[in-house]
Every structure is written in structure tokens, then in C-alpha cells.
Write a structure and sequence with these properties.
150 residues; alpha/beta; Rossmann fold; six-stranded mixed beta sheet; 4 helices; 8 strands
Length: 150
């Protein structure tokens, strides 16, 4: 499988580009853990939003896609009106579809929109905002840098 390394410098530049695209006011951010957590943290700082949550999913085992996506650790959003859901990549779209389904069932009056750094055109769903199209597996710096031999 062909891979592309994605360094911190690109992440920072792309996150800045993403903030220029997002033209919507939201009161909470949900990171799809773990890939969306770094992005959610930076966006929370940028927009001065303290209501930054995470939701957990399991859809991959290493680089192998599983048969279904499990969603758990769902945040309490009773005070939220508009929520931005973020992830590092929308690959197949299965994770995002399942997260939106669960959250919309639990919180039917909340408006949810989505953003990611990468998006594959073959995905089942497109995020509302994204920065780059993905054409290969992305090795994000947060997944590989600590494991590199110095």
C-alpha cells in the first residue's frame, strides 16, 4: 500500500486553511477519536470554544477496514445547538455516516456539520468542509513520529 507522510507543518497550514473555509457559527466541537482529536483541540483554541468533546469509533484494525463501525463514548449535548464534528480523514465515509446517525437520533434538535483535513471522493459522504483530497494512505505525524527510531 502506497503511503504519504503528513507532517505537523502541513497539519498547521491545513488547519488554518480549514478555518478560512468554515463559514458557520457553532457552539461545540466533537472530535472523532482518535484522528480528529488534534484538529478539534486546535479549532477549540482558535474559536475560543471550551465545549470540545470526543466520540469513539472503531472501524479499522491497523490498516484493515472492519465489517462495521462501532460508536461509543457519546458526549452529552443537551446544551448544544450547533456542533462541528471533525476527523482527520473521511476515507470510506462509513465512520462519519454512523456517527451522524447516532448523534442525530440522540439529539434531533441539534444541527451537525462536518469538517476534515482529508477526503476521498469515493466516500459515501462528503464533509461540509475539507482541505485536501486523499489518493493514498495518510501516515499522520501523530501516528508515526513517536515510534520513529532516532
Amino acid at each position: 500500500m502506497e503511503k504519504r507522510y503528513y507532517p505537523y507543518e502541513d497539519f498547521l497550514a491545513d488547519t488554518k486553511d480549514l478555518t478560512k473555509q468554515i463559514d458557520w457559527k457553532f457552539d461545540s466541537i466533537i472530535a472523532i477519536a482518535r484522528g480528529g482529536m488534534s484538529l478539534a483541540h486546535l479549532l477549540g483554541e482558535y474559536y475560543n470554544i471550551r465545549e470540545v468533546y470526543s466520540i469513539n469509533t472503531i472501524g479499522y484494525e491497523d490498516t484493515t477496514k472492519l465489517a462495521s463501525v462501532k460508536v461509543f463514548n457519546i458526549p452529552e449535548l443537551n446544551e448544544s445547538k450547533s456542533v462541528l464534528i471533525v476527523d482527520d480523514i473521511v476515507d470510506s465515509g462509513d465512520t462519519l455516516v454512523e456517527v451522524l446517525k447516532v448523534l442525530r437520533q440522540m439529539y434531533p434538535t441539534v444541527i451537525f456539520k462536518t469538517a476534515s483535513l482529508f477526503y476521498k471522493k469515493s466516500a459515501r459522504i462528503a464533509p461540509d468542509w475539507y482541505v485536501r483530497e486523499a489518493d493514498k494512505w495518510i501516515d499522520f505525524f501523530w501516528s508515526v513520529d513517536l515510534n520513529r527510531k532516532i
